Amino acid sequence: MAVVSFYLVVGFPKPAYAMHIMEGFLPIEWAIFWWVVALPFFVLGLLRLNRITKANPELKLLLGLAGAFAFVLSALKIPSVTGSCSHPTGTGLGAVLFGPLTMTVLGSLVLLFQALLLAHGGLTTLGANAFSMAIAGPFAAYWIYNLIMGASGKQKTAIFLAAALANLLTYVITSIQLALAFPAPVGGFIASFTKFAAIFAVTQIPLAISEGLLTVLVWNWLQSYNPQELELLQLIKGRNHSNESI
Amino acid sequence: MNQSSKSLNNWFLILAVLGLAIAPLIFVRGAEFGGADGEAETVINEIQPEYKPWFTSIMTPASKEVESLLFASQAAVGAGVVGYAIGLYKGRSQQPKE
Asked: Where are the transmembrane segments (chain A) (predicted)?
């Protein structure tokens, strides 16, 4: 870890402020493209959210917790080894609990709040930012969790890696989105991607680890104090359930 | 795992997160830790010098102080809801079963 940190510090001394894509900083055709890509996920997410709360109203508080977790984590601007600050996304927890589409809605709402009130991100870039943070991240978290649970059954490891890698992937996607919109005159997409990834993804590495740890922390609390609802969620998702106890 | 080793574990998690946040402040000397969203903007300007943002934010916080107020509020509201939910679950789970 120390070696990695040292390499990162020496290798990338540039100050960076890894955040979402700023208002107006995507050409209009790309802004529209990502809006069109993100909207169907959002609509499906609303339908799913509706279904969950209708079938199991008692889960509303846990939904609120998942949304609030993303809300608080994306407000924390944490210093990173690159000498700049960035924030976690908090979408992994909800994606593992409720499935990725639910987090599409909650994550988009967090982004909307920050775009409107904080001039952080933007409305024109909301589609792109929603795709990276509220779609790609949660889906990755969900798949990684299931993959590791299926392979090893180690739940804490699965939660940690799901949250951490979803966080990291969010910013890799952001770099891809920027590189697609701004390919370098020399070297094209790859050259641009390398530059943006050095800013966005590298800063994010320690924050991804932090997010993984915080997600495990909240998971520990839920497991201690609310095991019955975690059990219920397993039923809803229809996985890993052999004893038909209800 | 019993309850006390679980809560010990949780403390380790909290300490690790704090360590990850504080270590850069100690070991990365002379860094700015922030500024505006400038760095990506600089790279975009390098790649396409003629690009101008075609839309500006509808509302920008009046000052750095107002911005930090809003960020602090976001964190406080979020943490409040998380704490409320966990607290409620904890209280419920410790109620004697009838």
From this structure: 28-47, 59-76, 96-119, 126-145, 157-184, 196-222
For the packed helices A137-151 and A91-98, what is the interaxial angle rounded to 10 degrees?
60
pLDDT per residue as tens digits for the range A184-222: 998 999 999 998 888 888 888 999 999 999 999 999 999
Angle, CA A75 vertex, CA A69 and CA A78 arms, to 5°: 110
**How far does Cα B25 stand from its chain's mean position?**
16
| Low pLDDT (below 70) residues in chain A | 1-19, 235-246
Specify which residues A38 forms β-bridges with. none
Q: Which of A84, A111, A124 to mutate to test the interface with B (most CBs of B within 10 A)?
A: A84
Kindly write down the DSSP assignment for every residue of A22-53, as one continuous string.
PTT-S-HHHHHHHHHHHHHHHHHHHHHHHHHH
Q: Is the pLDDT of residue B24 over 50?
A: yes
Cα distance between residue B62 and residue B37, in whole Å:
17
Residue A42 near residue A69 (C-beta atoms within 8 A): no
Task: Using CA atoms of A144, A146, A151, A153 in order, give the dihedral in degrees to the nearest 10.
Answer: 110
Determine contact: B9 vs chain A, CB below 8 A: yes
Specify the pLDDT at position A70: 95
- DSSP tag of B95: S
CB contact B90 to A (< 8 Å)? yes
Please state the length of chain A. 246
- ipTM, two decimals, is 0.86
Closest Cα in chain A, distance from residue B79 (Å) = 6
